[in-house]
Amino acid sequence: xxxxxxxxxxxxxxxxxxxxxxxxxxxxxxxxxxxxxxxxxxxxxxxxxxxxxxxxxxxxxxxxxxxxxxxxxxxxxxxxxxxxxxxxxxxxxxxxxxxxxxxxxxxxxxxxxxxxxxxxxxxxxxxxxxxxxxxxxxxxxxxxxxxxxxxxxxxxxxxxxxxxxxxxxxxxxxxxxxxxxxxxxxxxxxxxxxxxxxxxxxxxxxxxxxxxxxxxxxxxxxxxxxxxxxxxxxxxxxxxxxxxxxxxxxxxxxxxxxxxxxxxxxxxxxxxxxxxxxxxxxxxxxxxxxxxxxxxxxxxxxxxxxxxxxxxxxxxxxxxxxxxxxxxxxxxxxxxxxxxxxxxxxxxxxxxxxxxxxxxxxxxxxxxxxxxxxxxxxxxxxxxxxxxxxxxxxxxxxxxxxxxxxxxxxxxxxxxxxxxxxxxxxxxxxxxxxxxxxxxxxxxxxxxxxxxxxxx
Length: 456
Fold this sequence. Notes:
The chain is of the alpha+beta class. It folds into 2 domains: 15-236, PmbA/TldD superfamily (PmbA/TldD fold), CATH 3.30.2290.10; 241-456, no CATH class. It has 9 helices and 17 strands. The strands form 3 sheets. The chain has a 6-stranded antiparallel sheet. β1 and β2 (59-77) form a beta hairpin. The longest helix has 21 residues, at 15-35.
């Protein structure tokens, strides 16, 4: 059985030739748009290849190989916009796509915020960030890795009674964005994952938990056996939960769930939510939201960063900049359309943020647990109880009781509630135990004094 994870690439890597072909298609489409009378146009072309396998209880459940491609065309006639897309690269299909986009634009209303991002903002320093690591993995070797992860987990503890399966995924993506300013940007990236989910206990006392590894290079994945054993440990550790009384507790959000708190901040400071008035942080730029030591910086140029890029989805040059510094919200997260709607300038975030880093002010996980005294460690969150308009927060949760700076027993079936503004101000510590599996890079976050609804 093959279980080693190697960083081998295919013998023949034709990615640059395929990117060149996509660039050629983008150029042809822009020419067609100009000939059709469009005052501005933009084209996105993509190709994705992937392999996904899943096993359960030592048997193969699924093997899926994917090959997808897409072409999206957007045209502007003044400030009227039309878009169309296709996956067919034949000449007549490409011509029809341009015609459809133009027809839509001619029948839409003027939108004062419509149009390409300003030409002077286009990126000129186009680089790669070590994101291309295709994996020469066939289906049988992928199955072997998944089986190894699952078996290691099932063997790790006699209390593991069932499996929810293990999986391996690998894929590559190529993308080209071009517009009528003359900008052409090409990107290529790979992505790989290995996961396992196990069930411990019997009857009503069963607990399900899992673990996964995600990386751009296969050599950066955790070993299959380690993933299985960690999934087993997490499942077993949740057996025999004890109730917790309703009250107010300090909450330590473990790193893998702490990033959701930063995600709620991003949702509230994104341009779409702001110009629709659907955010509790409207007009909050320049406001103290967090303690004065708290900081979040955007790092788009990290080597092998999960969201590193020289340009955003509109070709605008990305840049390193603080989102929060000294606890103060420094800016919003804007593309050109939302920026115009708000009377502001794009922040180079069309398509999202690029590698956010939350600065730590504390040590690792064990130090945080010791320092919190009595409270709750939150390792799992359920439900969607977050109101982005008001900031009200209420989610089901599970984790562990912490007493005297030590984890004492698992808890589940609780609800944690508060308001995001209050939660942000109540952040007491950010740990150095960064979870590397997301472009939001944060350690565990300790929030003082949240309401917890328990057994009573």
